[in-house]
Amino acid sequence: MSENVESSIKEMIVERLFLDVAPDDIGDEDHLMEKYDIDSVRLFEIVIGIEEVFGVVIDEADFDVEVFKDVKSIAEYVRTKQAR
After folding, report:
1. So where are the chain's domains?
2. Contact assessment for residue 38 and residue 46, using Cβ atoms and an 8 Å cutoff
3. CATH classification code of 2-83
4. Residue 64 CA to chain centroid, in angstroms?
5. The pLDDT value given to residue 1
6. Is the distance from CB of 23 to CB of 10 less than 8 angstroms?
7. Is residue 56 within 8 Å of residue 50, measured between CB atoms?
8. Residues 50 and 74: beta-carbon distance below 8 Å
9. CA geometry: angle at 37 spanning 36 and 38, to 5°?
């Protein structure tokens, strides 16, 4: 199950941001903003994608750029939200 969350996040990021990279080539701890030049607009696309793919709501109060720095931290956040 845990690998599926990471894989789903990687696929969603590549699809939504039209990245020229295979989802499997994104490392779980790659710094997304630095390595893939993700700005605030593209980060918002990731937030919306997470809400749609995983059925979670990311409240403004919850929003922290650190959560979205890499796939590993996004996956941990998603699991926490789904457990509630």
Report:
1. 2-83
2. yes
3. 1.10.1200.10
4. 12
5. 43
6. yes
7. yes
8. yes
9. 95
